[in-house]
């Protein structure tokens, strides 16, 4: 074997549980590390770019090609870990490639898997804790263990809370006021309240809002049962609801189509510092999208639908940026489980005028190209034809 692709093929034959690409050629602005975690039917790649992490799912047979794309062009080192074994591929600046392996069952590799990144993940909601909502949802057994067939749901819940914790932990809140729009049966609302009050010890006022009066009444009784005094549920419409306080944080999970635009508009209008929105059913632009220059993008139904969803959320992100927010689009749920997996995380940053106007200009150009009139732009009173 004399090249990286052959060494990677050898490593993949040992079914590694984790692979790490490190030692980047350029640390300024690019990808600084990639970690591939073995899942049941694929590997999930975590790409660390600046302070952000992006995810991509890769079939087992495609991993060698993926590694070859990044090494040695971007990274000088590959480490891989399987049961009781460790492998390393190292490339020098001169082009020399070195391969090391330690397949001793008692090797340092085994210690690495116990003490390094592969040690048991510390979840925000740990097993063994008494968390009534998780027990009532069937995610936890009465003993506080994750129930069979609920491990993926458990990870999704923790991932949702992690995206919020990333921002909450930076701010040292003593108290917080929040609204969860379109909360449905309130499963995540209860857990969000638990996280804020029990995990972070923040005095919290949280209102769940939904159109279903009977469901809101039941959720209210459940909050009383849990002793969640700062949590209440209100029968209300996203478009017209007015809170009894100025909210610090707005959460909206799967508000359908333009309901998400109404949520974002309200958050902007109320000057909420934190916005966490997972859009759903982005149908609006699909009915109007048209391009004279790029008809190929709108010719095929399913591709047109996917493009419409991407354009919808790109426009929303830029309009939030225009309104002074720093915005990230995060993939927080395995896309194989649901296509509704993108979260827009927006933090008010009082951005400078130049950056704000640039974001707005990009929206206007995009809307002109595809003949779009998005609801959020209309709610904000933005004239797209200018």
Molecular structure report:
The chain has 386 residues and is α/β, with parallel strands linked by helices. It has 2 domains: 4-115, no CATH class; 132-379, Rossmann fold. It is built from 11 helices and 14 strands. The protein has a 7-stranded antiparallel β-sheet with strand order 4-3-2-1-5-6-7, with helices on both faces. β6 (85-91) and β7 (97-102) form a beta hairpin. The longest helix is centred in the last third of the chain and has 22 residues, at 301-322. The model is unreliable at 105-119 and 334-338 (pLDDT under 50).
Task: State the main characteristics.
11 helices, alpha/beta, globular, 386 residues, 2 domains, single chain, 7-stranded mixed sheet, Rossmann fold, 26% strand, 7-stranded antiparallel sheet
């Amino acid at each position: 074997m004399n090249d990286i692709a052959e060494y990677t093929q050898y490593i993949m034959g040992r079914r590694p549980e984790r692979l790490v690409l490190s030692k980047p050629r350029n640390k300024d602005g690019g990808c600084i590390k990639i970690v591939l975690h073995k899942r049941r039917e694929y590997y999930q790649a975590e790409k660390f770019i600046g302070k952000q992490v992006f995810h991509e799912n890769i079939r087992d047979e495609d991993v060698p090609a993926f590694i070859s794309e990044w090494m040695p062009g971007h990274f000088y080192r590959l480490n891989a870990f399987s049961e009781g074994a460790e492998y390393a591929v190292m490339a020098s600046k001169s082009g020399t490639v070195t391969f090391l392996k330690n397949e001793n069952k008692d090797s340092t590799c085994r210690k690495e898997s116990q003490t390094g990144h592969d040690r048991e993940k510390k979840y925000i909601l740990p097993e063994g804790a008494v968390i009534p909502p998780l027990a009532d949802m069937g995610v936890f057994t009465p003993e506080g263990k994750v129930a069979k067939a609920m491990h993926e749901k458990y990870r999704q819940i923790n991932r949702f809370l992690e995206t919020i914790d990333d921002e909450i932990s930076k701010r040292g809140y003593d108290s917080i006021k929040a609204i969860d729009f379109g909360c449905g049966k309130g499963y995540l609302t209860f857990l969000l309240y638990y996280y804020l009050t029990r995990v972070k010890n923040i005095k919290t006022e949280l209102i769940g809002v939904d159109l279903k009066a009977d469901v809101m009444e039941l959720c209210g009784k459940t909050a009383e049962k849990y002793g969640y005094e700062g949590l209440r549920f209100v029968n209300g419409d996203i478009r017209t609801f007015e809170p009894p306080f100025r909210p610090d944080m707005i959460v909206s999970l799967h508000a359908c189509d333009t309901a998400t635009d109404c949520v974002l508009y309200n958050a902007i209008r109320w000057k909420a510092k934190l916005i966490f929105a997972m859009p759903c059913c982005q149908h609006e632009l699909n009915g109007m999208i048209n391009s004279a220059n790029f008809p190929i993008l709108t010719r095929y139904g399913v591709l047109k639908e996917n493009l419409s969803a991407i354009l919808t959320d790109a426009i929303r992100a830029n309009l939030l940026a225009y309104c002074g927010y720093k915005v990230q689009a995060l993939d927080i749920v395995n896309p194989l489980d649901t296509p509704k997996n993108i979260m827009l995380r927006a933090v008010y940053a009082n951005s400078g005028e130049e950056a704000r106007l640039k974001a707005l200009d990009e929206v206007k150009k995009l809307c002109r190209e595809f003949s779009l009139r998005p609801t959020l732009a209309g709610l904000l009173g933005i004239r797209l034809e200018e």
